[in-house]
Design brief:
By secondary structure, the protein is mainly α. The chain has helices at about 10-20, 30-35, 40-45, 50-75, 80-95, 95-100, 110-115, 115-130, 140-160, 170-185. The chain is built from 10 helices and no strands.
């Protein structure tokens, strides 16, 4: 029988807090059970296993991240939307390092397809990129460029990986401007009809 007051949502919220405090890799069922003052087995009424918990956390954090991005890009296009998107992404990654790490795990495609937050992420990201006149397969390539640039920068910044005296914000702004120029002058894939 499930312990009164314990729900999947409460467990995921506690996992998000724990991830930010101790790191995503330290989110375990045992650690959460200790937080709630229950035995590990009490959690299994709400989450199947550690993988299920971490997947739920990833989807939760992804929803938080896209909510922040959506608010930032609302009513913007082109360079302004890209800058707002990038800044919202970076601020979330730096403020919530454990939750952000959760967003980087590989999730089963069927769960992604069924997630409103993940559909919204695609809609907002692709919508922003369509303002640059991109269509498939260039859209997918551009998403991969943005994600790898944003993630790489945030991961290095969080780890203290930038040692030069140059201001990190100034470098970030230059990187976003470079992405804007790359998107504006995108090498479009030419289609050949047989």
């Amino acid at each position: 029988m499930a312990r009164a007051g314990l729900t999947a949502d409460r467990i995921v919220a506690a996992a998000a807090e724990l991830a930010d405090e101790a790191g995503f890799e330290h989110v375990t069922l045992s650690a959460l059970a200790r937080r709630f003052g229950v035995k590990d087995a009490s959690l299994y009424s709400h989450v199947r296993n550690l993988n299920d918990l971490r997947t739920r956390l990833a989807l939760h954090a992804g929803g938080e991240l896209i909510d922040r991005i959506a608010a930032a890009v609302a009513g913007r296009a082109g360079r302004d939307a890209l800058t707002a998107f990038a800044d919202a992404y970076r601020s979330y990654a730096l403020e919530h390092p454990g939750r952000y790490s959760a967003t980087q795990i590989r999730i089963d495609q069927s769960l992604i397809a069924g997630s409103p937050a993940m559909r919204r992420t695609a809609e907002i990201t692709y919508g922003m990129l369509r303002a640059y006149g991109l269509a498939e397969p260039d859209l997918t390539d551009a998403v991969r460029l943005l994600r790898s640039t944003f993630h790489g920068y945030c991961a290095l910044e969080s780890a203290g990986g930038f040692g030069a005296a140059r201001d990190l914000r100034a470098s970030w702004d230059k990187a976003v401007e470079a992405l804007h120029l790359a998107l504006t002058h995108w090498p479009r894939e030419t289609r050949t009809d047989d």
